[in-house]
Amino acid sequence: MSILNAEHSKVLLMKKVFFQGCSPELERGSTAIVEKCDGLPLALVCVAKFLLGENELTGSHCARVCHNLGHHMEKEADFTKLQQVLVNNYSSLSGYPLRTSLLYTSVFPNGRPIRRNTLIRRWLAEGYVQCQYKRSDLEVADENFRELIDRNIIRPIDASNNAKVKTCRTHGIMHEFMLHKSMSDNFITSLHDQNRSNFRHLFIQNHASGSTLSSNQRTSPASDDAAGSEKFRARSLTISGDAGEAASEFCRCELLRVLDLGECNDLEDSHLKDIHKLWHLKYLSLGGTISNLPKKIDKLHCLETLDLRKTKIEILPVEVIGLPHLAYLFGKFKFGKKDLRKSEIAEFSQRKSKLKSLAGFYADGNPGFLQLMAHMKELKKVKIWCESTGADNRGLPDISKAVQKFAQDGMDTTGIRSLSLNLGNTMGDFLGSIQEYCYLSSLKLHGQLSVLPQFVTSLCGLTELCLSSTNLMGHDLSNLRKLRYLLYLKLVEADLGSFTIDNGDFPSLRRLCLVVKMPILPAIKEGALPYLVSLQLLCKDLLDLSGMRIEFHDCLEEVALDSMVSARTAEMWETAAKKHPKRPKVVFLKRIDPSEPASAAKYVAADGPTREKCIVDSPQSGSRTYVEE
In this structure, what DSSP letter does residue 537 have? Predict the structure, then answer.
């Protein structure tokens, strides 16, 4: 069943419960219920039925019902049908590991977007993925995630360039059911639960700033120092919001495998001084209040994932890069040592680094990271920010050599090999020195180029390409047609100029995304892009169809437009889609931060075009005119 949007959900609830009218206070209180039901009609109907049995209904009462919804679903007869549906959904999952993986998602706050890769890496760290046959743990985890999406148990928010779901969240009502079940099974609970010592996973969500725990709720992780001290068996701790006193005590949870502090608002550098004692830790994420890592972090020998993307850390301690099991390192930092001796590089090489993702680091004239890259034999994904080092740009040849070595090392593989290169304020002409015949499956180039580097069009196996703010136009972009195996192409430019896609160009392309300022789109000839399934045209000033002929694309399933397009343009695209044999859906994407430049803009789904408008109907002609305000 399709879910309802917020407005239709509100209408349904009002119709079932507040048919005699609704005061502003009651309407405000019912908003939380609408959000929790998350557009599921059965959930809204069951809640409405329960509310009708109440003697006096107020906004505060609605809020309490919403807060205790998990308890009501289990105890109240009005929720029997909903409970059966949720239980059947859960029980029908194949095997204990998949059901456990689903329950694990309730450790995140309700409604919070969850990165697919973050969830999968946490599953792996917790040991909730059981390898089958000769497949890797990562393949099994990816399949489990896909099954939860396909069953509509967790909800996709947006898709990445290869059509995989990039971000998701649980349905509000399903989250409530899973959290209540997790607590009943001693699986997940709040750190402030008095019975927390028996639970495997702990969380803090929206803890009030500056508050303290009462004496019978204070966090007392495992310690043998004092008689009667509370012992924990928790394997993970996830903090969202303010941690309060728990920020200084989590290091006593000695069995932790996962410590997610990425959303913690009141964490300080001093709170990490004893983090090296968490010897079992495999996954560590830190938030925006952290500016330094303790040097003893090299004691975390089991650490596999270190996520510093939200931190203020600018210099990465040398000790981190030498962690023996570190596979995923995320952030934006410079190397912590100016010059590496040959003996140090040789020692690093002998350790056989396990790093698979290094995303990423500044290339600022310090060759540290670039020198070590050549000895990261398992490296599959790397992100580099170039930083000008003066008029001579003396560090650019080092970048070119490192990129070429990384790409050439992939020649003996057919797997994922991804490079993201942000040129910053340097010109990308130095990339012209990279020889042809390299292997990359994914390439992102951001920054000015005078010409398209020759190696790009000769890359073996390139299936994903993103060019942003390159200022390339016409002839250079036309050279991309040589990429016969390209599946995804994204161009983010102010103006694409005269760019034509002829019959026979991009014979494998399935997804085309154009983010442009000027509403001038490429001319796509009949017969071109025969396998195109998704067309994203993100330009708020798009004029009508802008010369696009979607009837040329027999496989088209989706057209995405900027939510700020005019109502007239939106209607014209919807009309064209209805005339198409496959009736592709027309979706609207909204910029999260309109002030960001197009190259950095992120989009989320919107219900429809959002530009303010008024509609004028002509009684004489029956026509409709849209006037933008």
Answer: E
- Phi, psi for 355 (deg, rounded to 5): -60, 125
- Cα diameter, the chain: 89
Which residue stretches of 453-599 are H helix? 474-478, 567-579
Least confident of 70-84, 113-127, 379-393: 379-393
pLDDT in tens, 2-37: 678 888 888 888 788 765 667 777 777 778 888 888
AA identity, residue 485 = Y
Distances (CA, A) of 186 to 210, 331, 458: 29, 35, 56
Q: What does residue 18 show for φ and ψ, rounded to 5 degrees?
A: -105, 45
Per the CB < 8 A criterion, the answer to whether 197 and 230 are in contact is: yes
Kindly give the pairing relationship between strand 613-617 and strand 624-628. Answer: antiparallel
Cα torsion 97, 98, 102, 103 to 10°: value is -30
Distance CA 164, CA 604 (A): 15
- What tokens appear for 319 in the block? 């000790």
Lowest mean pLDDT among 6-15, 224-233, 416-425, 565-574: 224-233
Q: What is the pLDDT of residues 183-193, one digit of tens each?
A: 989 999 998 88
What fold is seen in the domain 93-174?
A: Arc Repressor Mutant, subunit A (1.10.10)
pLDDT in tens, 409-429: 877 666 789 999 998 888 777
Q: Residue ranges per domain, the chain?
A: 6-85, 93-174, 186-207+231-307, 479-629
Read off the tokens for 142: 């990816």
Out of 3.80.10.10, 2.60.40.650, 2.60.40.10, 2.60.120.10, select the CATH number for domain 186-207+231-307. 3.80.10.10
Burial class (CB within 10 angstroms; exposed 0-12, middle 13-18, buried 19+) of 162: middle
**End-to-end CA separation in angstroms for the chain:** 36
d(CA 232, CA 220): 8
* DSSP H or E run through 27: helix 24-37
What would you report as the CA-atom Rg of the chain, rounded to the nearest whole angstrom? 27
**What pLDDT sits at residue 214?**
33
Long-range contacts of 137-144 (CB under 8 A, 24+ apart): 141/101, 144/97, 144/98, 144/101
- Cα–Cα distances (Å) from 347 to 9, 325, 353, 372, 448, in that order, read 62, 16, 11, 11, 38
CA distances from 303 to 320, 327, 523 (A): 10, 8, 50
